[in-house]
Amino acid sequence: MARLLYRLTKGFLYGAVVGVFFGTSLYLLAQAVLGIGVVLGLTPAQISAVVFGSCLVGGVGMEYADWMDQQKE
User: Fold this and answer.
1) Model confidence pLDDT, tens digit, residues 6-31
2) pLDDT for position 22
3) Do 48 and 24 form a contact (C-beta atoms < 8 A)?
4) Which of 17, 45, 63, 66 is buried most, with the most CB atoms less than 10 Å from its CB?
């Protein structure tokens, strides 16, 4: 159980770091697109939040899948 919590925490932190970088870059890109007058379906903050959340879920999911694969062995 302790090993699982370690892996999930590691996946959470990796996902958060990657999510912050990609979320920030897409936020800035969306702000630039809004600056030239193109209307987006979502606000830049919403786009950034979706990207951050998906990176977070992806990081945790990847570590959990690796842990499950190790349990089969």
Assistant:
1) 999 999 999 999 999 999 999 999 99
2) 97
3) yes
4) 63
CB 67 within 8 A of CB 5: no
* CA-to-CA dists, residue 17 to 24, 55, 68, 69, angstroms: 11, 9, 23, 24
For residue 47, the number of C-alpha atoms closer than 13 Å in the C-beta half-sphere is 16
Q: Read off the DSSP letter of residue 39.
A: P
38: left (phi over 0), alpha (psi -120 to 50) or beta: beta
Rounded Cα distance between 15 and 47, Å, is 16
When pLDDT is cut at 50, 70 and 90, the band that residue 2 belongs to is confident
Q: What is the DSSP letter of 42?
A: S
